[in-house]
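Work Package 3 (structural annotation) set out to generate three-dimensional models for the target panel prioritized at the project kickoff. During this period the team completed the workflow that converts sequence records into discrete structure tokens, so that structures can be stored uniformly alongside our sequence database. As a representative example, we reproduce one entry of 373 residues exactly as it appears in the project archive.
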Amino acid sequence: MRRTLSTLGVASALLAAAVAVPTMAAADPVARADHARANDRPIVIGHRGASGYRPEHTLEAYRLAIRMGADYIEPDLVSTSDGVLVARHENEISGTTDVAAHPEFAARKATKTIDGVAVTGWFTEDFTLTELKTLRAKERLPQVRVANTAFDGRFEVPTLQEVIDLARTEGRARGRTIGIYPETKHPSYFASIGLALEEPLVRVLRQNKLSSRKAPVFIQSFETANLRKLNLMIDVNLAQLLDATGRPYDFTVAGDTRTYQDLAQPAGLKWIAAYADGIGANKNLIVPRDASGALLAPTNVVRDAHRERLLVHSWTFRAENQFLPVDFRIGTDPNARGDITAEYELFLGLGLDGVFTDHPDTAVAARAGLATS
């Protein structure tokens, strides 16, 4: 993709504005050594696989992400009725599978309250794994990623074990280690219905000898209580997800009034560092946008997190204009590609340790370009 002078200028100006926010290397060489990952370079995490090119959370999406150079692949985890962890963005699956086209499951359509919100559809916890395997995945954003719909109906819903097996097989074929970066989805809800996610997750990781500090694994969650529980159960890396708005649902249940914005402040980051190894931050916590979608000056989140020896991974990098800040859009078509390379350069220049991306090839290329510049 051709770079424009305007986007190059924006990235340079914002990086200049961040001079007062030193990267980890400048602020603390010891911390830099502690945080080394993937040969001391930022890691590329295939967000739900290469979900910009294939229906998300399918083995084909994960396989493509690995072949594009991703260091980690990210399965969001939910449970079946028989306690098997499978990869879906949500436990409600009408938007990502063909369940609505299966008359044998019509009676299972229901309305449930998930994290305080009423949701209507079909839910993984109402299906056995055998039943779920009769469904086929479909593109979640068909109006945005029209080309991906050509793969609708071709791929199964994978289990966590199948994702691990794929990572190992592809890693051996390419002579490099492929990590997994699972997210526990709605852990308070699943615990409330007797299908807690933590025990089966730890069991699968241990069965696969992926339970040590050196294992290529990060477990992430938008809630805090289950990560604090996991910190006592297993010794892998943990990452606290931080959105730009709202609060962890377990805080809502417990009456804790702190928000994600509070947790992104120095005191909140210090609290997180007691149980986690990193944060997965919404991009807007790192470089906010104004009401028009234009970039504002970077915050101190990366610097402050590194001072607590926390890794900083950020989400989600997507190539289409509608997901980019105004500064990096090209043309007026919201579904056309913008200058995602400029966005990577801006964020990696602020000292990120990793990026979650729907388009892993673009992140790998941007990382390589920065390494040689």
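The radius of gyration is 20 Å.
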